[in-house]
Amino acid sequence: MSAGTGVRHSEFNGSPTDTAHFLQIWIIPDAPGYEEKRFTDDEKRGRLRVIASPNGDDGSVKIGANARIFAGLFDAAERAEFDVPAARRVYVHVARGAVTVNGVALSAGDAAKIEDVSKVTLEQGEGAEVLLFDLA
Fold first, then answer.
1. Were 13 and a residue from 2, 20, 28, 119 both cysteine, which residue would form a disulfide, CB within 3.0 to 4.6 Å?
2. Could you tell me the CATH superfamily of domain 41-135?
3. Distance between CA atoms of 61 and 46, rounded to whole angstroms?
4. Contact 123, 100 (CB under 8 A)
């Protein structure tokens, strides 16, 4: 959701039996909007799949901000590299599992703020679900 002032929202788990894990992440949009999409595990398995971008690149949701968000699932030998555009920063958040990011081991709930590098490498995943943010 990209919202202006005065918007109220809430998240909840609609299942009486399944657990839910919510992450609330704020990126200030240029304009309000709402869009919802589902990306399958196959689309994210062993790679970084763009899930949000300014213009809806590759079927991602449009976020109306100078940022791109990627999601990936990593186990064992699965590996992905992200080429960091010039003058950009990267934020990596491990939602579940464990993964190595540029040689540093991270576990569920850990994050890394990365700048002044040309590449970010994700590898040695153990049931890892990762979000990577490409930021101005």
1. 20
2. Jelly Rolls (2.60.120.10)
3. 21
4. yes
